[in-house]
Amino acid sequence: MFTVIRVMTLLGFLLWNPNIGQAFPDEPAVAETVAQAAEVATESAAPEAAGYDKGDVAWMLVSIAFVLMMTCPGLALFYGGLVRKKNILSVMMQCVFLMGLMSTVWAVVGYSLAFGPPLIAGFDIVGNFDHVLLKGVSPSESQPVDSVTMDQIVVAFQGMFFIITPALICGAFAERMKFSTMAVFSVLWGLLVYCPIAHWVWSSTGWLSEFNEAALAAHESGQDAGFYFPAIDFAGGLVVHISSGISALVCALVLGKRKGFGSVPMPPHNLTYTCIGTGLLWVGWFGFNGGSQVAADGRAVNAVLATHLAASAGVLGWSLAEWIKHGKASILGACSGAVAGLVCITPASGSVTPICGILMGFVAGIFCFGCCTTLKNAFGYDDSLDAFGVHGMGGTLGAILTGLFATRAVTGSSAGLLDGNPGQLTIQLVSVAAAVIFSAVLTYILLQILNAVMGLRVSEEQEVQGLDISQHGEEGYIFQ
Questions:
Q1: What does DSSP assign to residue 297?
Q2: Taking Cα atoms as reference points, which of 312, 177, 151 lies closest to residue 258?
Q3: How high is the pLDDT of residue 411?
Q4: Beta bridge partners of 118
Q5: How confident is the model at residue 16 (pLDDT cuts 50, 70, 90)?
């Protein structure tokens, strides 16, 4: 029976297929196939002809998504689990709201201030307004969409940094700052602090920028490059972590301590959230650091591997220090150590080997543990979620260690370095000092102005009630 079925099936196929018995397909069919293949090949080559590679674009789109994920749900959960339960929604609202607010500000004017030509010729502190409303980097009749693809990649990717940096500062004044003041402060801080530092470090004319080709060439050849210090900040040790961490300390000092700080226990209410948030931050950091190469190439791969190993070693460093001091290691310590390692490797990930990443992460875990315990207790400031101890101090450590471990084996010729060049350490120290002083002074001035105009803190009654209810009229935990 099965044999009959197979024979009938074969006969039916022979009768139905018109090409059976022909040695070759018809010539027109061959010509049509070749023409279609040529058309596909032409279409595939179009992006490269327009100045970008599909692989690079794909990697950058993934990196953009990863970095956005770091703010929410990553940072929202990480910070949300560390506050008291009456304030969890306020922390999450800050993260979500800043995603919307800072993205809009970035597109309207922030990108132009960070990456535009100098506002004042010969005084290159901040960009001008050439790219307001994304002028010159948006598709138009004179600029087809393919011709501005990489420009838009930079706008989107750097915009994610513009979101998360002020969100990091929120950890310092958690549980006591007015939501309205937080929003205004974040916008002003982003435009007046973040954008200038980003311009110094990452624009093509910045006085700290590796991308200032004319000044870098003069510097490498030993000629007079003027006031120029080509700092290495691959993914934001200066621009993101030092600026936010130092500003966080200023915020904590100006706002003062939370009611009951030092006398009333204020333990984290849900470390499960913090652990989940840590995992999301860890994964998102692959886009944060790896995407900073703006290409899917070997340096991006090195950055991802160094990033992962630094976070891993950070866990070990903090946990070991905690174990030695307290006799046991905690999940909060392991999570904090991972973030410390990630912060430390951020400026260096595109210029050091993965093994150096392990060393930097391990040292950062121990160093930031000391900053968040011994140093914090000695000075008595109330940095609610240790934004200064982890980001400010971890970023500073990373920027300095970058000057020690950067190597041409990773950077190629773009960094202007020779292995073991002692001059780079001096440059890194100058860049750190500039970022610290500028961030601290501008943040203090902004807070004093806002305190006079709007007030910084919620009332004592609102603080006791919790910011979830007093600022947003909601409760995160309906069943107490």
A1: S
A2: 177
A3: 87
A4: 127
A5: very low
Q: Both tokens of residue 23?
A: 């040695």
Q: Express each pLDDT in 53-67 by its tens digit.
A: 999 999 999 999 999
50 CB-contact burial (10 Å; exposed 0-12 / middle 13-18 / buried 19+)? middle
Q: Tokens for 71?
A: 């703010």
Amino acid at 34: V
d(CA 199, CA 127): 7
The CATH architecture assigned to 52-472 reads: Orthogonal Bundle (1.10)
DSSP state of 119: E
Q: Residue for token digits 């969409």?
A: 145
Q: For the chain, which residues make up each domain, given as ranges?
A: 52-472
Helix-strand-coil split of the chain, %, nearest 5: 70, 0, 30
Quick check: 84 and 385 in contact, CB under 8 A? no
The phi-psi region of residue 345 (left if phi > 0; otherwise alpha if psi is between -120 and 50; otherwise beta) is alpha
- Which tens digit of pLDDT belongs to each residue from 356-371? 999 999 999 999 999 9
CB under 8 A, 24+ apart: contacts of 35-43: none
